Amino acid sequence: MAEFNISGRMEVASLQRQFKEEFGLTLRVYKGSNFADPKDTLASISDKKVEDVSCIGSIQAGNFEERMKNVGIKVQVATGDNSSLVSNTYTLNEASKLFGDK
What we know:
alpha+beta, Ubiquitin-like (UB roll), two-stranded antiparallel sheet, 4 helices
């Protein structure tokens, strides 16, 4: 099962790369209403202290997005080719099998 930890020291690009490697999906990361700069750290784009968060394949996409929102990071899970958003009801593993670039 795919699983990794996310910390505030991570750069946006590192998070996106790891998410892509684990699930074959695109993770859109925002700073406000715009996409975050890939060189920014997660702590620098959050208005809260970014606690460590685990990302596991059995979590639903919507619950993962909410978990990230709770630490001040707005994200959206998109298909591997970034053409559309994944339904919040799919787990990350299900979305990976259906829409991932693996």
